[in-house]
Specification:
- By secondary structure, this protein is an alpha+beta fold.
- 27% of the residues lie in helices and 23% in strands.
- It has helices spanning 7-13, 19-27, 118-125, 145-153, 186-193, 224-230, 259-265, 267-280, 285-293; strands at 5-6, 31-33, 36-37, 44-45, 51-53, 56-57, 65-70, 99-101, 109-115, 133-139, 155-157, 160-162, 166-169, 174-179, 198-206, 209-210, 219-221.
- The strands form four sheets. Strands 7, 8, 9, 10, 13, 14, 15, 16 and 17 form a nine-stranded mixed beta sheet that branches. Strands 3-2-5-6 form a four-stranded antiparallel beta sheet.
- A hairpin with a 2-residue loop joins β11 and β12 (160-162).
- The protein is elongated, with a radius of gyration of 42 Å.
Amino acid sequence: MPEGTRLNKFLASCGVGSRRACDTLVQEGHVEINGKPILNPAHRVEPGDFVRVDGKRVQEKQSNTVMFFKPRGYVCSREDELGRDTIYTILPPILKHLHHVGRLDRDSEGLLILTNDGELSQQLMHPSKMVEKEYIVTANQPVLNEHLDLFKSGVFVEKTRMRAKEVARISSRRYRIVLETGLKRQIRMMFQTLGYQVQKLVRVRIGLLELGDLPEGAWLPLDDRAIAALQRNPKPKAIRRPATKTAKPAKKTAAKPSTKTARKASPRGTRESNRQDSRSAPPSKTQRSKGRGK
């Protein structure tokens, strides 16, 4: 295995820029190692090498990662060509060397990760990692149920299929949306394509790390445990199915005899019927002789 650190990764860890930006700097001849121009971003930097960018020496900085509550009205950029305020105008000087992982557009707010760890940035941003990002979105009007279904199956925006992993209604105009992809202004474009406008968009979770009660504009350093949580998604919720009730077998009961049948079968009924038969039968010879004697 080759020793040393790839030049683009080394420069990113020095706070020069993202790996892609560092690739460009190297290829354009802005970087020297031990006095020699290096044009290959994959060149290995050995311990003790003297690295310069535009004549200024750069050194690796200690890895640092923070979570930041980006307020609305700020651009995720170091400099803005339109002169708009950027997040770095409100960040303290000790965080100026950190790079934002992904973006929240100017009108969006919420959880943003800042780091100088290039590997972590790749882990969080690469589509193959499918790290979840959860948002609370407020629309200008209630969204039809069939349109919410389209958010999951896919909305075509300029021949690009955009879809959400999860969609849930919180209230008539507020919705919880989870993405695994990070296309530019994806949620706003999906709403707009279906005839709605996003009035407020807040990112509240990345992986397992939640924004919680962090105040707007505040930041918080992350330890190894929190950084690990950033890279894991919540476990899928098990679908609870109602228990099926097994029908109990019917108890066998003896059929009750009808009233007429019961009357005929009872001893009392038999005696009464015998009395009636004796009254209606003609008297015998013995009975007639007794009657004359009286």
